């Protein structure tokens, strides 16, 4: 009877109109400074939750980055690129002719002004000391033929609070990779001054792995952690909403300097 009663209730429907407040889009920026790479930037605008699919690009903006090194400084102008080439993980719509140089004592100041709305975004990024992977170990599980990778490295400047990110990928056919792990952590879990981070059991004998170790800033670490929380919250209706901590002022997004060490590693089973 209870089941019949619930089924009958499904026939009663009532449409309710909900007036949503007007949403004013904000500028959203993604800019990663990589040593030896050209300065590029992605600038879009945020949308309401039930808005159109795809982010609208901002074409009329003044974009500059000031570079301040130990013995010199410069201002770099960006121009809009409607036909920017697609590079996996590096999509952009603003580009400059300048390349990022590596100087551990340098810092960068970002300024973006939307000519149509007058909205201004500012950000600061500091160059960090490059990390170094000292060893990658393969450890096979006795119950089957799968293995995990143990990445070891020395904590940089052990008297300071350091933050890291490790991306572990497995090479598929051709040049395609599968992301196995994306781990963000503070450098306080260590033996002496050595940190060891393990991947999941996702490798077999003969697999090729790509391990990338990033030394990241505290603002970027907070940005990544809150991004993870927001994505998990979207999948759980009972989760508390998460506010994403942007690394810029006046808008949303991230502006940061990336120093990293990357190793390609062949998994081998040794008895």
What can you see in these coordinates?
This protein is mainly β. It folds into two domains: 27-126; 133-245 and 259-266, Immunoglobulin-like (Sandwich). The chain has two helices and 17 strands. The strands form four sheets. The protein has a five-stranded mixed β-sheet with strand order 5-6-2-1-16, with no helix packed on it. Strands 4-3-7-8-15 form a five-stranded antiparallel β-sheet, with no helix packed on it. A four-stranded antiparallel β-sheet has the order 12-11-14-17. Strand 11 and strand 12 form a beta hairpin. The protein is globular, with a radius of gyration of 23 Å. Residues 1-9 have low confidence and may be disordered.
Task: Provide the fold topology.
Layout (H helix, E strand, L loop, with lengths): L1 H8 L17 E7 L4 E8 L15 E8 L4 E5 L1 E2 L13 E6 L7 E8 L5 E7 L6 E8 L6 E8 L8 E9 L5 E10 L7 E5 L9 E9 L1 H17 L13 E2 L2 E6 L1 E8 L5
Parallel strand pairs: 1-16
Antiparallel strand pairs: 1-2, 2-6, 3-4, 3-7, 5-6, 7-8, 8-15, 9-10, 10-13, 11-12, 11-14, 14-17
């Amino acid at each position: 009877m209870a089941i019949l009663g619930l089924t009958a209730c499904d026939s009663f429907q009532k449409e309710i109109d909900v007036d949503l407040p007007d949403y004013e889009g904000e500028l959203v920026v993604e800019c990663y400074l990589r040593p030896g790479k050209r300065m590029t930037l992605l600038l879009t605008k945020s949308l309401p939750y039930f808005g159109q699919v795809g982010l609208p690009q901002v074409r009329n903006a003044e974009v500059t980055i000031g570079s301040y090194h130990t013995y010199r400084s410069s201002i770099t102008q960006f121009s809009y690129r409607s036909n920017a080439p697609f590079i996996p993980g590096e999509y952009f719509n603003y580009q400059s002719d300048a390349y990022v140089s590596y100087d551990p004592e340098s810092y960068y100041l970002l300024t973006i002004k939307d000519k149509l709305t007058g909205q201004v975004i500012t950000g600061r990024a500091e160059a960090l000391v490059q990390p170094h992977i000292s060893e990658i170990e393969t450890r096979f599980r006795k119950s089957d033929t799968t293995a995990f990778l143990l990445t070891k490295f020395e904590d940089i400047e052990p008297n300071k609070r350091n933050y890291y990110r490790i991306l572990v990928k497995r090479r598929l056919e051709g040049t395609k990779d599968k992301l196995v792990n994306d781990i963000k952590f503070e450098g306080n879990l260590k033996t002496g001054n050595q940190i060891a981070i393990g991947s999941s059991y996702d490798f077999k004998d003969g697999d090729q792995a790509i391990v990338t170790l990033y030394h990241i800033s505290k603002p970027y670490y907070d940005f990544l952690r809150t991004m993870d929380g927001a994505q998990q919250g979207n999948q759980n209706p009972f989760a508390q909403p998460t506010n994403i901590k942007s690394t810029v002022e006046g808008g949303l997004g991230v502006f940061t300097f990336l120093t990293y060490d990357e190793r390609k590693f062949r998994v081998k089973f040794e008895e």
